[in-house]
Amino acid sequence: MDSTYSKSGVAGSILPTAGRARLEGESSGLSAGRSIAVPDKEIQKTASLHDLPEEITIKIIRLLEFRDIARLQQVSTHMHGVINNNHVLAKAWYQRFSSPHQYQLKTSLPTEDKKQLRLWLRPFTEDEALVESLIKYRKKVYFPALFYFAKSGLMTRCKTFNSEKKAAIAHHDLVTAEFSADGRHVVTASDDKKAKIYGQNDKGAWVEKAIISHDAYVASATFSADSLHLVTFSWDHTSKIYGQGVGGSWVHKLTISHNNFINSAFFSPDGRHVVTASDDHTAKITSHKDDGSWEEKLILSHGHWVNSATFSSDSRHVMTASGDHTAKIFRLRDDGSWEEKATISHNHWIRSVTFSADGSYAVTVGDDRKAKIHHLEENGSWLEKVTISHDDFVQSATFSVDGHHLVTASLDNTAKIYGEKTDGSWEREATIFHERWVVSANLTANGCHVVTVGADKKVKISSRQVNGLWKENITISHGGHVKTATFSPDGSRMVTASNDGTVRIYGLKVDGLWEEKRTFYHNHSVNSAIFSPDGRHVLTASDDCTARIIGQHTDGSWVVKAILSHKRSIKSAAFSADGYHVLTISSDNKVRIIKLRMSE
């Protein structure tokens, strides 16, 4: 079985009734109940499952994985009805995603806005009855599972997509851009000293909402998780917070000032706090008040520049990284004030700091060639659990989403995997070797697979066996440097992008081995390749002036569904949360918003 599939909370799929478009079950080619293998009367001669109460039958089905549920649905009309009527397949599909990814999908979905929900589906179906049958479930707790499963099926059934440019945002210098979490806004940040906000009007057109001006280049512009605010920071030593006003306008809320360059500015996950980190030896926490205004709450001081600062997932802890060789952790009290809880020391300046997804662990990476893991104790203190040493600089240290594993990437040509033991200690479980330095290393959400990218033009996937030992699963060789190697959200697929002009998609088989699904070719270097939120499509960006949408058909094969052409090389591309908008950034300093829909 696919070891990334969750076995908990399984329960349902929404399938159209006879005469409507059918939604496909899975990339394996399973028909999700379109054909019944054995008549009910034959099943009843040899099996008693049909005689059980339906609630008991569903509990038994919950022990199965997605692929098995889809097969079970083909056994008889009775099982087809039980699975279909209780939406079992959709919920099983949704449960394969990690909890943070499910939360992201859920919060991005405009559940209360019927019009917006229709807009998310109509580009990929003309079946209005199907659209309305989905929307009627929007008050149900399992609605995100039904909606995204249906939408994923509709997009998978599209053999090709038509694309339409909806907006071109021009700047006079280098630019970055991102969608808001709900997919309804785009913000750009440019070296031309401006950030621009674009949003959709009531007719779905993209229009300019605001221009944010600074006195030096804008290094970043980022939305809050609820999409209601954004924060910029600039080399003019200021960070600006903007918020949505009446009528869809964006208004200036506060300017945060530092006495030197700002290195980062981030929202807390709940959107109520911003932390800025500066070369003036301080980090500042600014908070949202009940009346809608923002006010400075605390200045965190260090003995040298503050490289970065980040929040924990519950928004109650902040961790800073400084050139004074320390990281500091601060905690939010119930009265709204912040208190220092820990100082973590290294023998050199600290490169990065990260919390685990549940906030119970923190990892610091120093230029002393070490990474340190600390644990949040019941009394609120932070206890060092392990120091990870390398023979050269540590590029990164990344937790799995479940927080039980961590992988480092180093210039010493190795990646090291550490795991949490039952007694709470951490031990090294494996070392992965490359012939040159390790550029990046990442884990699947459940910590069962690690992908490493080496400067030796190789990508390696290592997998954890049943006995807990790690084994190299597959080595992928490219003819040029590998730009990215990324797992799909459910961990069952992986895609690489290389400057040899190729994109390679790999899939996890039932026996636990990885196999190549398809290689796609660009005419020049591929700068990035990312999965869509449902993992069923890949978006590439290339120096050959194209971005390509590669997707699965219902039989599981991967094909090019759309080619987005520009006059200049495309540096990066991203999907929106609604799945039918794509953002591209090209070397002519233009950001383009492109709408997708099914071909006629």
- The residue-averaged pLDDT reads 89
Reading side by side through the largest sheet, how are the strands ordered?
1-40-39-38
Q: Main β-sheet, in a few words?
A: 4 strands, antiparallel
**Total helix count?**
9
Given helix and strand content, the structural type is mainly beta
Helical proportion, percent range: 10-25%
Radius of gyration: 25 Å
- Give the overall silhouette: globular
Beta percentage is over 45%
Question: What is the rounded distance between the termini?
Answer: 38 Å
| Counted beta strands | 40
Catalogue the unreliable spans: 1-34
Describe this structure in words.
By secondary structure, the chain is mainly β. The chain has a domain at 40-157. Helices cover 13% and strands 46% of the residues. The strands form 10 sheets. Strands 1-40-39-38 form a 4-stranded antiparallel sheet, with no helix packed on it. Strand 11 (273-278) and strand 12 (282-288) form a beta hairpin. The model is unreliable at 1-34 (pLDDT under 50).
Index terms:
single chain; 600 residues; mainly beta; four-stranded antiparallel β-sheet; 40 strands; 13% helix; globular
How would you sum up this structure in a few lines?
The protein has 600 residues and is mainly β. The chain is globular and about 70 Å long.
SSE order and pairing:
Elements: H1 40-46, H2 54-61, H3 66-72, H4 77-85, H5 88-95, H6 99-108, H7 114-121, H8 128-135, H9 143-157, E1 161-170, E2 175-179, E3 185-190, E4 194-200, E5 206-213, E6 218-223, E7 229-234, E8 238-244, E9 250-257, E10 262-267, E11 273-278, E12 282-288, E13 294-301, E14 306-311, E15 317-322, E16 326-332, E17 338-345, E18 350-355, E19 361-366, E20 370-376, E21 382-389, E22 394-399, E23 405-410, E24 414-420, E25 426-433, E26 438-443, E27 449-454, E28 458-464, E29 470-477, E30 482-487, E31 493-498, E32 502-508, E33 514-521, E34 526-531, E35 537-542, E36 546-552, E37 558-565, E38 570-575, E39 581-586, E40 590-598
Antiparallel strand pairs: 1-40, 2-3, 3-4, 4-5, 6-7, 7-8, 8-9, 10-11, 11-12, 12-13, 14-15, 15-16, 16-17, 18-19, 19-20, 20-21, 22-23, 23-24, 24-25, 26-27, 27-28, 28-29, 30-31, 31-32, 32-33, 34-35, 35-36, 36-37, 38-39, 39-40
Helix pairs in contact: 5-9
